[in-house]
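Homework help board

Subject: predicted structure for assignment chain

Our instructor gave us this sequence and asked us to write out the predicted structure in token form, then describe one feature. I got the tokens but I'm not sure how to describe them. Can anyone check?
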Amino acid sequence: MAASPRPTHFLALRVSHPGVVAAFNTVHASLVQHAPHLREACVDAASAHLTLGVLALVTQEQQQQAAGALMALAGPLADQALLAPVAVQLEGLSHFNNKVLFLDIARDSGLERLMQLAAASRAHFAEHRLLLQAGQAFVPHVTVAKTSKLVQQYSKRQARQGQQSEQLPQAAWAPHAAIEGARVELQEIQLCAMAGRKQAQYYPILCCLRLDPSLFGSAAGCGPALAAAAAPPPAISDEQQAGGQSTTSVDPSPC
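My token output:
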């Protein structure tokens, strides 16, 4: 059986709000205070997002196909009254196997609409045979820290000895388990490249679909990154680096 393709791109809902940045900073400071080397596990607040799904777009043709699918998504979303911004409340911390720490989403009407938007978007890209791990449950989360960023800390000698990957100690973040993030409005679906992000910046955006019914018919735009000939290298998703099944279904977030 052929190996599953490694993801290179992802569908994202960007999360940008001063309250989210403040929450990231608070949690990061707590992690570093507990163990200074955990600074390397912290995720840049500028990259904060919700992942709707991951894709393997190795060639420029595949990238153009995905961009076309994103533009075509406006119709199905409009038909389901989902082509509109979604407001969600970010609050509290949760984790996947103590290896991925993330801001959770309040269980309210905003989460319900987000789940509907995600289901419609994922189904659309699955129909276009672009969505990887389409059968995996969608678990919305905004990653704050993850141990996969510490991989380079371990030597080949440690790996040969079978030393397990480090976990994020709950004692380091438990004081902020109920942290308040912010109420954020998710305004567009983005097709992003996993590779090429610069420090303190967001991911390269190949194409985006504005969640605005008034723009239906011209709601998508593709950036110059789509014309790049070089395909980005593969990345390891959160649930892959977590090394096993969580107590809840894990969405394959790249960051």
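Reply (TA_rk): Your tokens look well-formed. For the description, you could write something like this. Residues 109-127 form the longest helix (19 residues). That's the kind of observation they're looking for.
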